[in-house]
Design goal:
It is built from 12 helices and 4 strands; from the N terminus they run H-H-H-E-E-H-H-H-H-E-H-E-H-H-H-H. It is of the alpha+beta class.
């Protein structure tokens, strides 16, 4: 039962989030009112981001493990034996032996140094991977935030559409009753209202889906969200975007660190052909428990030994193992070097796509804004003309439909423009928590690394 309690609690929490997302019950004190609030909440609690940070902390230990090759190895052992032999004395002998041994590497062909460099490069690549995950999570937050805002506005437009068409239908029926309009006009108004009510239901369902997605990435259901703030750091030109991406994009930097780690592992593989030198020492004592009188010994039997040695090893033939590992490491390094070019090309593509999407969305926003203004004037004019018999009911319905479609297109264009800007910042390597919430302390992987980097060190490590 105890083991199942945490799982039950997690299921209850998940259920609450899902209900709040579906029903819009996120108006409590814990809701995120601004994009800054949502980003801060996700930055501190998102499980994908938390998991990546834990993986990086685990990767920090590879540095300690690599550095252990510089340090002495000390071990202790205890052994007990029983021996029954046929001899002159024919006495059973029991002995207990205890020993302490130590080994200190002096030279291993540079293998430890190469492995340490590889670990440092792996950690640096891991930090760039964490930056990628952070940017991905923040982009998901921005997308979820903008989606909720878009769908809420779309629902408002749908509700306004239904209200206007209800009034139009009532007016049409009243004019039909006095003989000014025909049954066809009433049917047209009824059909448009039914279609608008269906669109309203779809908009409400889409908003619930977006709220659930928001709760999944942020960790809480959205309340009344404030308008999206301007994104700082957007480039003035595409050349600026390319230049910034070449310096800051985590995929490019991570690929470069991966290649550095692979090059260090080539040196480690080659070190296997070099000689090694180590110092070893052992202290041990053995006590024998037997019938001392029968053996002619009055004070018991014991033996103490001290051994010190210098061990020099030169590999001569390994059956092709070392050569194969060197070739394997070289080809791995070659693949990592090629991956840098691949990351650069992919980044160029991402920047170009985001830049063009941003420009297109910006142009669409301007055009749709002008369309909404013109359609609003046209709708009001058609309604007035219909009141004096110069326009039909269908003309009014069509004008109203065009206006709502233009309003919805403007909402979508603003949504797309904002997401394109976020995508451009991500491709440039500039989508970070400092951009969305400068006051929130950023996670510092260097602190976690510093807590473990000296673990297991000894005073004479620097001399070795």
């Amino acid at each position: 039962m105890a083991a199942g309690a945490p799982a039950s609690g997690a299921r209850r929490r998940l259920g609450l989030i899902a209900v709040a997302g579906a029903l819009g019950l996120g108006a409590g004190a814990a809701r995120a009112e601004t994009l800054q609030d949502a980003a801060a909440q996700a930055y501190q609690s998102n499980p994908t981001l938390q998991g990546q940070r834990a993986q990086l902390r685990a990767l920090d230990e590879s540095y300690v493990q690599a550095r252990s090759g510089y340090r002495p190895q000390v071990s202790a052992g205890v052994e007990g034996d029983y021996t029954q032999t046929i001899s002159t004395y024919n006495q059973p002998i029991q002995d207990i032996a205890a020993s302490v041994s130590a080994s200190q590497p002096i030279y291993n062909g540079g293998a430890t140094s190469a492995e340490t460099r590889a670990a440092e490069a792996d950690i640096a690549a891991g930090r760039e991977q964490l930056r990628q995950v952070e940017a991905s999570v923040l982009q998901q937050v921005i997308t979820a935030y903008a989606d909720v805002r878009r769908d809420q506005q779309a629902l408002d437009i749908a509700q306004t559409n239904v209200a206007v068409l209800q009034n139009q239908l009532a007016e049409t029926r009243a004019r039909f009753d006095v003989g000014q309009l025909t049954r066809t006009d009433v049917a047209q108004a009824e059909a448009r209202l039914a279609a608008a009510q269906a669109q309203q239901s779809s908009a409400r369902a889409q908003l619930a889906v977006s709220r659930a997605a928001y709760a999944a990435v942020v960790g809480q259901s959205p309340g009344d969200l404030a308008p999206e703030p301007a994104l700082p750091g957007l480039p003035a030109s595409v050349d600026d975007a390319f230049a910034t991406a070449s310096r800051n994009n985590p995929a490019i930097l991570g690929a470069d660190f991966d290649e550095q780690a692979a090059a260090a592992r080539v040196a480690a593989a080659k070190a296997a052909n070099h000689p090694t030198l180590a110092l070893r020492a052992q202290v041990g004592e053995t006590g024998y428990y037997a019938n001392a009188a029968a053996l002619g010994v009055s004070n018991g039997l014991w033996a103490r030994s001290v051994t010190a040695s210098a061990v020099f090893t030169q590999p001569l033939f390994t059956g092709g193992l070392n050569g194969s590992r060197i070739r394997q490491a070289l080809e791995t390094d070659n693949a990592k070097r090629i991956a840098i070019e691949g990351a650069q090309r992919q980044t160029v593509q991402q920047v170009a796509q985001a830049w063009n999407q941003l420009n297109a969305a910006h142009a669409n926003t301007a055009s749709n804004g002008e369309q909404v203004r013109a359609d609003q004037v046209a709708f009001e004019g058609v309604r007035q003309e219909a009141g004096v018999g110069l326009r039909t009911t269908l003309d009014v319905l069509n004008a109203e439909q065009e206006l709502r479609a233009a309003e919805l297109a403007l909402v979508n264009a603003r949504h797309d423009e904002y997401l394109a800007g976020a995508g451009l910042l991500s491709a440039m390597g500039r989508l970070e928590i400092a951009v969305l919430d400068p006051g929130l302390p950023a996670y510092d992987p260097e602190k976690s690394f510093n807590r473990v980097r000296r673990a297991g060190s000894v005073p004479w490590e620097g001399l070795v």
